[in-house]
Amino acid sequence: RSFVFAFQNDWTRTDSFRIKGASSVGAFHVTYLSGATGSYAITSAVTHGTYVRHNIAPGERFYLRLVVSVPNELNGQSAEFPISVTSLGNVYRRDVVIAGVLMAIS
């Protein structure tokens, strides 16, 4: 399962952003990658809350991809993976999105 997240600087000045994402949950294994299609792994930095994108101009976007690997035997099980983004220019500017995975019952 793959999710692409687009983050956009809606402020009127250049800003930097810290991203923190959920770690693996049970048999649901997460991998975070830089960019919408990239293969550069940033999993450790994202799950530890130390991944920062610097100098994002007003209106500029950057992307992050979450890949969740799931064994087929997890019939009917689910997991949620929250990802938060926080402005370093104003820590009150924060947002959270949740990626959810539900395995079909086969």
Indicate the radius of gyration in whole angstroms.
15 Å
Helix/strand-derived category reads mainly beta
Helical coverage, percent range: under 10%
Shape designation = elongated
What are the low-pLDDT stretches, counting only 5+ consecutive residues below 50? Answer: none
Task: Give the termini distance in whole angstroms.
Answer: 17 Å
Strand order of the largest sheet: 1-6-3-4
Report the biggest beta sheet as strand number plus sense, adding barrel if it closes: 4 strands, antiparallel
- H/E series: EEEEHEEEE
Q: Report the total helices.
A: 1
What's the count of strands?
Answer: 8
State mean pLDDT (0 to 100 scale): 94
Strand content: over 45%
Keywords:
mainly beta; 4-stranded antiparallel β-sheet; 106 residues; single chain; 53% strand
3D architecture notes:
It is elongated and about 50 Å long. A 4-stranded antiparallel sheet has the order 1-6-3-4. It has a 4-stranded antiparallel sheet with strand order 5-2-7-8. The protein is mainly beta and 106 residues long. The protein has one helix spanning 43-47, and strands at 2-8, 15-21, 29-34, 40-41, 51-56, 61-69, 78-87, 94-102.
